Every structure is written in C-alpha cells, then in structure tokens.
Amino acid sequence: MKVFKFGGASVKDADSVRNVANVLNHFPGEEILIVVSAMGKTTNALEKVVQLFFNGKEGALELLQEIKEDHLNIIRELFAADEHRVHNDVEILFSQLDIICQGKPDENFNKAYDQIVSYGELISTKIISSYLNSSGYQNKWLDARRLIRTDQNYRFARVDWNFTERLVKDTILPDNRYVVQGFIGSDDDLNPTTLGREGSDYTASVLGYVLGAEEVVIWKDVPGVLNGDPKVFDGTALLNQISYREAIELAYYGASVIHPKTIQPLQKKNIPLRVKSFVNPDAVGTLIREGSDLDPVLPCFIKKDNQVLITVSTRDLAFIVEEHLSKIYKVFHQYGIRVNLSQNTAVSSSFCINHDPITTPVILDELQKDFDVSYNEDVKLYSVRHYDDEARTRVQRTGKIMLEQISRNTYQVITV
Ligand code: ASP
Ligand code: MG
User: Which residue puts its alpha carbon closest to atom 3 of ligand 1?
Assistant: First the structure.
C-alpha cells in the first residue's frame, strides 16, 4: 500500500479537489491510503473561532457560518444539486460545531482547541471522499479519531504507537482505497486531539510506518524539495535525492517543505518518502531515502525571519560556565523555546530564538533576574548546508552581520 498526503493548498477550492482526482488517476488499480488536511486556510479560521469561543467573545458562530459558506460553495461547484449525502454529512459536522460553540468551553484551552479545530479535516475529507467516489474513484472514508491513538497532551499530542498499530491493522484492509484526516487523533476517552500545526505530513508518516507502506508521497505546489525556498531565494534547483539524515538536518534548520517529525518513523522501516508536484504528477520530484546525502550536491539555503538575538552576560564579569548555562537553558526549557544558534565568549553567551510576542518578553524578564541582558529583535538567521564560498558570500550580503558560525557542513549567519 502507498500513503498519499494532500495538504491544505492542494484542496483549497473546487478545482484543486478535481485535481486530486486527476493525480489519483495516474495510479490506476493501486491500493492507496489518502491523508488530507483541512481545506486552504480553514485551520487558521477555526483557530480564530476557538479564541473567540474560549474568551467568551461574540462572533464565533458568525465566523463558523462563514467557514460553512466557503465549504458549501465548494460543494455546490463539485456536486449536482441532488447529491444529498455529502450536503447532509457536512451539515451534520457544522451543526456539531455550532452546538459546541453554543455551550461552555472546556477549562483547558488546548482541549477546547482540539475539539473544534479537528473539524477542519473531518469536513474536508467528507467532501473529498464523496467527490472521488462520485467521479469513479471508489474509496472508504475513515475517522482518524478511531485510528490514531494519542496521549492527552492536547494540541501537541504524542502518538501511542502500539495502540495505533492495532487499530490501523484492524481497520485497513488490502485491496481497498481510503481517505482519512491528517493532523487529528483521539485520546483514550475518545476526545479529539491534534498533533501540532502542519501535522498532516506526520500522520502520513505514522500510517506509513504502521502499515509498512511501500512509499509515502507528499503532494505539493512545488516540484519537490528545492535547495532553497523559491519565494526567498533566486535560482533554486530541485534536489533529486536526499538521505533521511540530511532531510532531518534540513528540517531542523527550518526547511519548511518537510515537517521535522515526518522522517524518523519512515527511516526506521526504510520507507521511501517522495515529495511531488500535484500540478505535474508525472514529474519525478524528490526521493528521500537511505543513501548519499544529496543529489545533486548543492548548497542548501534556509532563512528564518523574525528571530531574536539575546546576549546574556555575567554581572561581575565572571566567566560564563556550566552553572550559568544550565540556568539559562532551564529558562528556555521551561517556556518550550528551541535555541536556533548559540555562541559563547568569556563573559557572555548569545542565543538566537524564534520571536514569540507572548513568551519573548517573559524570557527576557526571567534572564534579567540573574544576568545583564541585551537583545536585537527582527534579525534574520540564514543557514547553509553544504556551503561553498559563493553561498556564504550570498547570505553575508543580506545585511549587517551580527554573528557567524561555521562547522564542517553548515554555515550560519545572523544579519539585520
Ligand atoms: N490543517 C492543519 C494545519 O493547517 C494540519 C496540516 O495542514 O498539516 O496545521
Ligand atoms: Mg497545511
């Protein structure tokens, strides 16, 4: 069996949904498990609904109505007026959402979030599964809340692998084709959970792993994995092949085509991951598997905007030693902050982190209790894997250099 994942951009409107059918027609007779995200920007819109609902503000139901209209418009374009089944299914899901939003929110924001946001995928898969069936691509709709079992770490739920494996093996049978939601699962009490934003790739990987899939394919609006985001860098080129290890490195530095958690489960079972273009399904795309790091070997550019560079110094000009560092990292750990780059001098230590309007000021306050702290906001972090001189010069020229770091395979520079 193959696992295909279609993200929000690939199902954003009626034409995109038709295109999914077109892509699938390139694989006649193959057993495929299709993992689908919420349509377009639905998840962002549902996040707003949760915020309004949770904070007792007006407008949640109105916003839900807008989201519903958007989906109904797509349904009207895709189906004949007398196709009652899909209308009915989607109406039911939206009325469940209405009922939730007319009640009292769960005290736990993250739990309330999962309860509501998970509907984006339930709705999109109802539409896509029905459309595929009506256009001759027979498939069964599956409920990921009955397949992916997680803990109760709402919004960032962790998969219970053994339980999930049992559920999947009891449900998914050979010689069938299925459509299932990405991003969502449920806890032991069957409360919906989500796996973290952009988590549908991870769902595809989890299902690919437990099924021992032949391959997992992520369908994208780009030709595959390029050596830089074409919206940011000129003259990017397609990477034909990447090793699992290199893919994990690229994701770690912030390459956004690959969700960081996706690779590891596949690597464990040596399942190839392909990133292909849904616009051009015959093109080969990028293959991620065991093998040489990169083919072709090219410098890979990654840019992270909206970074904060924090420099922490001892008040008495004492050397920065392990004791200070562990205090500093404890603060980062406490607020779930990942350090993107760090560097020490004798009496100071610098850290580059993603700016977050809520946590950054809190962290600065915490650090200021024990240290002198200075910081620069809105700096950019460039990372170049497999750099050469030209690649380094290219990113150095993007602004005034605040900090540079170089290792055998990676060059990083912070500019402002
Ligand atoms: N719909 C979810 C999100 O937008 C999951 C995904 O698209 O991967 O984050
Ligand atoms: Mg998405």
Answer: 198
Q: Superfamily assignment of 2-220 in CATH? A: Acetylglutamate kinase-like (3.40.1160.10)
Contact 17, 11 (CB under 8 A): yes
Q: What is the CB < 6 Å shell around ligand 1? A: 7-8, 37-38, 43, 120, 182-183, 197-200
Instruction: Point out the ligand 1 atom lying closest to the alpha carbon of residue 196.
Output: 9
Q: Which residue has the tokens 């050979």?
A: 174
- List beta partners, residue 380: 415
At 48-61, the pLDDT tens digits run: 999 999 999 899 99
Could you check whether 2-220 and 300-415 share the same CATH topology? no
- One DSSP character per residue, 66-106 reads HHHHHHHHHHHHHS-TT-HHHHHHHHHHHHHHHHHHHSPPP
Give, for 60, the enclosing helix (H) or strand (E). Answer: helix 60-78
Q: Which ligand is nearest to the CA of 122?
A: 1
Please tell me the number of the ligand nearest to residue 121's CA: 1
The CATH number, out of the four listed (3.30.2130.10, 1.10.10.60, 3.30.360.10, 2.120.10.30), of the domain defined by the range 300-415: 3.30.2130.10
Taking CA atoms only, the protein residue closest to ligand 1 atom 2 is 198
The domain ranges of the chain are 2-220, 300-415
Nearest partner of 108 among 56, 155, 177, 178, judged by Cα: 155
16 C-alpha vs ligand 1 centroid, how far in Å? 16
Residue 89 — very low, low, confident or very high, per pLDDT cuts 50/70/90? very high
Rounded Cα–Cα distance for residues 35 and 218 (Å): 9
User: Of residues 58 and 180, which shows the higher confidence score?
Assistant: 180
CA distance 61 to 334: 35
Distance from the alpha carbon of residue 348 to the mean position of ligand 2, in angstroms: 40
Atom nearest to 41 CA in ligand 1: 4
Q: For residue 365, with 0-12 CB atoms within 10 Å meaning exposed, 13-18 middle and 19 or more buried, which class applies?
A: exposed
The residues, ordered by sequence, that sit 6+ positions from 162 with a Cβ below 8 Å of its Cβ are none
Residues 20-29 as b or e (16 or more Cβ within 10 Å = b): bbebbeeeee
Name the pTM for this structure: 0.90
pLDDT of residue 256: 78
Q: Which atom of ligand 1 is nearest to the CA of 121?
A: 1
